[in-house]
Write a structure and sequence with these properties.
Length: 245
Amino acid sequence: MIIISGQVLRPQDIANWQTEESLVPYINELLNSPVQFDYGSIAELMFEVRLRRHIVEAARELHGSGVKFATFAKTYGNTAYWRVTPEGALELKYRIPASKAIRDIIENGAFYAFECATAIVVIYYLAVLKTIGEERFNRRFRDITLYDWHYEHLPIYTETGRHFLRGDCLYFKNPDFNPAKAQWRGENVIVMGNDQYFAHGLGILTAEQIIQRLNSLRKKNAMQPAYLLNQATRLDAPALYQIMH
């Protein structure tokens, strides 16, 4: 459900909109969702729609970039742009344009390896860059740390529910994971649409395939299979819109 300035948006209200064809599935998902999405203007709504499309694009680009999966202890990155901390974080070097450093991850993926939660943050930053452009991105994000769920500069929220949209981040939990491979205690994924999910380290797979892969990484005599949590993590597009405008 879409609410704009207190009014419910109906399908007939957008029938005559001159909308890019690639954005239509995202608008329709928001319209048909039981989750309520509130906006102050049509511009805010379109900002969210473009942001979601860019999240899916960024996930696909990261998948094809050659970036490896690694535990925090084995994280590495292009030292021309990033400093690797003892904890396994990638810190943007002083006076390096954030846009250039984020794009380098996609362009020179062989120089990078990191964990799946870090991958989601990379995807979010890349999507925001695509949405707002280099100038505003560099002005807003002068220092960036890529590490686990560190997103100090991004408005992100998680809410309970079972209705998911393209661009959402979900989590597959693996309660009986093998302690020797603790990195597979679960997997953060991006919803790509049509039962496809980007899971860093696994690929673009269906929900069933991800569960099967996680089940193969459980401890001996495991009893509980992996499962999808009933929650979604989202970039707060209206809040981000207000910050950027």
